Amino acid sequence: MSRPILHITLILLLFLMVHPGWAQISPGELAKSHSSLEGISNCTQCHTLGDKVSNDKCLACHKEIKSRIAQNKGYHSSKDIKGKSCASCHNDHHGKNFDMIHFNPDQFDHKLSKYELTGAHSKVDCRSCHKSEWIKDAELKKRKGTYLGTGTSCKDCHADVHRGTLSKECTQCHTTEAFEPASKFNHNNVDFTLKGKHKSTDCKACHPIETREGKKFQKFKGIEFQNCSSCHEDAHRNNLGPNCRECHTEESFQSHALLTQFNHSQTPFALKGKHKQVDCAKCHNLNVAATSIFQEKKGIVTSNCKSCHEDVHKGKFGNNCAECHQESSFKTLKNMDNFNHGLTSYPLQGKHIAVDCKACHSEDYTVPVPHNTCASCHKDYHEGQFVRSTGAAVDCAVCHTVNGFKESTYTIAQHALSKFPLTGAHQATPCFACHLKQEKWLFRNLKMNCVDCHENIHKSEIDVKYYPNQTCSACHLTTDWKSSSFDHSKRV
Fold first, then answer.
1. What spatial distance separates the first Cα and last Cα of the chain, rounded to whole Å?
2. What pTM, to 2 d.p., does this model score?
3. Are strands 329-333 and 440-441 parallel, antiparallel or unpaired?
4. 3-state secondary structure string, 347-378?
5. Strand, coil or helix: 151
6. What is the distance between the alpha carbons of residues 452 and 68, in angstroms, rounded to a whole number?
7. Computed from CA positions of residues 75, 77, 80, 83, in that sequence, does the dihedral angle turn out positive or negative?
8. CB 173, CB 182: distance < 8 Å
9. Under a CB-based contact definition with an 8 Å cutoff, are residues 120 and 176 in contact?
10. Rg (CA), the chain
11. Closest CA to 95 of 21, 144, 35
């Protein structure tokens, strides 16, 4: 303040003290709320000499308004009010009972308070929200009828019906139109997305209403949902495991849409080959009770083919089909080396064991192969030498075994039944000495005289009359060449 103005002010004050009548310079009595500022000594509490009422001086007292303006909050910081002179709305000196707050609740535009009233809020009486018990500031709470201090958060006015179990941001799910239903809540944004029949299910069916502390409480958090059995009774009584989603969908419990995706390898009967393409209903009756469905094949092992398939071999080859067949195709056989040929009417022995199956079975294995005689499969090595006069051939097995063709079982006793019984030293003579001619075995039309095999060491020294037709047996024995049966007394 300049020195001349200060002097004038002091002179004016002294003058008014000497002449009380001059006090009528005041425009009027102050309102009750400002009554403590009555008196000429308090004018400058609100007025600036030579100027109008100062907003700064108003806000110096009304700190709660100043703070909200600084934070850009509330009515006084709105674009329609901010920057106006306080006195333009709240002028004084109109008497003790003058109401400086010209406020009509019915006409107040709540948007100017930075909190627009929407939905059900727009229909609520002002005093339903602006209550002293909802004002947190202790000083504001003392002010009778104030509209300041009421919070804008839902929890400032409304009780938390979720008891702290959900987010404090109520507007994530609810709107001001109505608390129920929670129209902004989207089940797809939580861990359990609603699909199929779940979409039409009443919330209460999954979120039960219970009583907590004497009040109703609907549970939304802590609901188990990891598996269907968390909510639903297991209709299969745990016969099929806990993961219902492997077979069922939310569209309908009766739907079998996912059966084709079921991992059968989790069961003791893993599906392989053609079994993978078979419809479930081919093996399982789908029209039985849930407690017994898929149970009719329980305990059947993969090798027990006859439990489902007809035995085309009529039990001839035993029960273990998997020894020969595989799931890729019934006609696609495994390596038949391990087939037990003993199950057939012709058990394999000796050299036959190592023979490739196809060497005998040129067609399908089920086509009968003649096997009554060796000649059914083998070429007659002897080229008909043992064919009887009747035309029937002597079977190879008379002389040979399956252990090898080169070895012979033909005995001396059998040779004794032939036209040339073996006696003496002949019994020790190997077969090939007589029967192998020019690398060919001969058993028919062999000459049987001694000279046919033995050299005539006598040549012309002995008259042929002593051994007609060079019959050595006239003098010699088969036991020993040196031993002789010759009787000299009978010779002339």
1. 198
2. 0.56
3. unpaired
4. CCCHHHHHCCHHHHCCCCCCCCCCCCCHHHCC
5. coil
6. 146
7. positive
8. yes
9. yes
10. 62
11. 35
Tokens of 109: 């535009």
Kindly state the tokens that stand for 486.
């010759």
Q: Report helix, strand or coil for 491.
A: coil
The DSSP secondary structure of 180-209, one letter per residue, reads SS-TT--GGGSSS---GGGGGS-HHHHS-E
């305990």: which residue's tokens? 299
Q: How many CB atoms lie within 10 A of CB 43?
A: 13
Is the distance from CB of 274 to CB of 327 less than 8 angstroms? yes
- For the chain, helix, strand, coil in percent to 5 are 35, 5, 60
pLDDT at residue 256, as a whole number: 79
Helix H or strand E segment including 211: strand 209-212
- The DSSP code for 387 is B
Mean pLDDT, each 10-residue run in order, the chain (492 residues)? 50 46 68 92 89 91 93 93 92 93 90 94 93 90 90 92 93 94 93 94 93 92 90 89 87 85 88 91 91 89 88 85 86 82 90 92 88 91 88 89 92 93 93 90 89 85 80 86 77 59
- Give me 219's structure tokens: 């549970």
- CA trace torsion 343, 406, 390, 368 (10° rounding): 20
**Residue 132 to residue 70: CA distance in whole angstroms:** 24
Q: Residue 488, Cβ neighbours under 10 Å: how many?
A: 6
C-alpha pair distances (Å), 111 with each of 198, 397, 428: 41, 118, 135
Phi (first) and psi of residue 46, to 5 degrees? -120, -35
* Closest C-alpha to 101, from 48, 44, 135, 143: 143
- DSSP labels, 213-261: TTEEEE--SS---SSGGGTS--TTTTSS-S-GGGT--SS-TT--TTGGG
Structure tokens at 323: 């020894």
> How far apart, in Å, are the Cα atoms of 302 and each of 269, 320, 488?
6, 10, 90
Return d(Cα 404, Cα 342) in angstroms, integer. 20
| DSSP-assigned letter for residue 301 | -
Q: Under a CB-based contact definition with an 8 Å cutoff, are residues 273 and 326 in contact? A: yes
Q: In terms of residues, how long is the chain?
A: 492
CA dihedral 318, 324, 326, 328 (to 10 degrees): -130
Q: What are phi and psi of 321, to 5 degrees?
A: -60, -30
DSSP code of 394? P
Q: What tokens were used for 81?
A: 């009010």
Cis peptide before 181 (omega within 30 of 0): yes
Cα–Cα distance, 117 to 109 (Å, whole number): 9
Q: Output b/e per residue, 96-109; b: 16+ Cβ within 10 A.
A: eebebeeeeeeeee
